[in-house]
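Please review this one:
***
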Amino acid sequence: MRLPPWLDALRPSQLAKNALVLAGFFFALPDRHQAGIDPLAAGLCTLAAAALFAVVSGAVYLLNDLHDAPRDRLHPEKRRRPIASGALPPCAALAECALLVALSAALAPLLGRTFALVLGGYFAMQLAYTFALKRVPLLDVACIAAGFALRVWAGVAAAGVALAPAILYCTFCGALFLALCKRRAEIAEMGGREAAASHRPVLRWYPPPLLRAAIAAAALATLAAYSAWALAPSTAEKFGTRGMALTVPFVLLGLLRYSQLTARGRTGRPEKILLHDRPVQLCIALYLATCAAVWLAR
């Protein structure tokens, strides 16, 4: 079933990214130091925060597609996007974007000043990315990674819970890994750096040796950060168990599988891998199941 152009332009297939807003609440529930929180109230606030991030993300996608429409028409997949294909007129897309921004600006303060500032900072960073930073090598992927970390921070602020800084650092490194893998897959899909640069100019500055080294470094930093958190005495104290160490292998296997897929040039879209690759889905399911088993067995 084909979506209406105004809805398709918001890229509903990428809404899964905003699930990271729920991460802080997920890790706060079994934390004995936060036993005083109201799970229902905190959960509803976190869901509202995720919804507002989805609204702002939709506005960012509209702006990005308006800006990139000429280049998107050169891409085998992106040329079918509503704005690039002409299905959604630019004036209608701009009006829709303005409406979404106004709606989020009106509702964000209801979830607290910190959340509103984080959401505003995310939108400002995405504007800078769309109009300038996406053309600066390494800084472009750093902005993408920071956007994921801001999602986690925003969820924590909305729910009124605390989160170990290591989780934010791990989120940033993991998102950086995904962004670098996406760059590698984009180059493979377009048939090389020069051809890919016609769509995304920054790809000209990502030679294969740099991408291999950067992907390996980001994967190692992600695994090191998560392992340090999972094995830390403070984590064992908060959760009342050392069992979180059992989740480390699933993080490692997930990183390796994702890197393998993008090295083959399978896809430059993480949501496609998440929705269609069984080993990745199995890693995520086993990770969540292990977390639940560890917390329930305390």
About this structure: The mean pLDDT is 88. Residues 1-163 form a domain with the Tetracycline Repressor; domain 2 fold (CATH 1.10.357.140).
